[in-house]
Amino acid sequence: MKNILVIITKLSNGGAEKAITLLASNLSKKYNVKIVAFDNSKQDYGTDVEIIDLKTRITNNKIKKIINFIIRIYKVRRIKRTYNIDYTISFLPGPNIVNCFTKYKDKIIISVRNIQSKLKKSYFREIANQISFNKADKIVTVCDSVKEDILNTYNVKNEKMITIYNTYDENKINEQKFEKLDKQELTIFKDNFVVITIGRLIEQKGQWYLIRAFKEVVKKIPNAKLVILGRGELKNYLQKVIEKNGLESSIYLYGFKRNPYKYMYNSDLFVLPSLYEGMSNVLLEAMSCELPIIATNSEGGNKEILQNDYGILMHKFDGKYYIDEPLTKEEINLGKKIIEILKNKTLREKYKEQSQKRIKYFNKENNLKKWINLIDNI
């Protein structure tokens, strides 16, 4: 049986972390799999796969970053030799560069999860990307848009690259989406139209546009509520946008939830206002929870998921920060579309059915076959 090592920074808070946990669990049914986490002091996503915690805390201190990098290289190289690893799969720039620098006898597979040309580039990240893309045996991208972005930005051979879409944990979602809301939550979800969005509270996710657009929604639909799940650096800014627009009784910042599916299942509409995306896990999860979808037609995988009218694609936003300035054209249009969906039950039902149809394409079996075929034939 082949030995596979999977490397990630942590197992909390992010889509890549959730995706790699699910992948490792699925691969463990056929291979010997171990997960290496740079820092597993906080774990949001459960797995039966053995986790090796390097205990190198993520830091912004430049000297500590260098020390951590050296420690990670030393420890991962030793792990590869100790367990006679045949294949090493890594997600995200940090793990990808460590994976490439610790090549022993193993085949190196790196996964690129986001539009690289849109990310804020540090000197280290650029060097890490160049080395990783050149040294990897295979580069797995989460959608064709990410693949094209790499081909246009870096000198990478097309034959080295393959697209494998994200999948979703259907069994887990079906188990958890029927869990009951508590009494306080029920006061929000019962007898109201609930719009939900989920994602880290960071610039990429663009939640402030949705908040501002929602001001128009509550004018037309007073019992409309917006629930935002996620944690991140923009929490205080988003709270300020809510307050400045007088939306404290209509919008709720719920933070990170281990079970987001019960909130999705009890909502009426899912909106993803991101400025760019790789392959959004949460879009797939929302479809699995039978929600109609609105998402921005931004760079990345949104249009690949929602193509052919499986959801509604809105024009992308300008990327600027706003608080209580006049709404942009894109925000006005988003508000109008939300109002249209909430007021029109027939339209909501149409896109619920579209979600149920489309999600079947991203089932676990299809994607797992692609990963197994890649591993067995590299």
Mind explaining what this structure looks like?
The chain is of the alpha/beta class and 378 residues long. 44% of the residues lie in helices and 16% in strands. It is built from 15 helices and 13 strands. The protein has helices spanning 15-27, 62-82, 93-101, 123-135, 144-153, 170-176, 183-189, 207-220, 235-244, 261-265, 281-288, 302-306, 329-343, 345-358, 364-377, and strands at 3-8, 32-37, 50-53, 87-91, 107-112, 138-141, 161-163, 193-198, 224-229, 251-255, 269-272, 293-296, 312-314. The strands form two sheets. A seven-stranded parallel sheet has the order 3-2-1-4-5-6-7, with helices on both faces. Strands 10-9-8-11-12-13 form a six-stranded parallel sheet, with helices on both faces. β4, α3 and β5 form a beta-alpha-beta unit. α3 (93-101) packs across α4 and α8 runs parallel beside α9 (235-244). The longest helix is centred in the first third of the chain and has 21 residues, at 62-82. The relative contact order is 0.11.
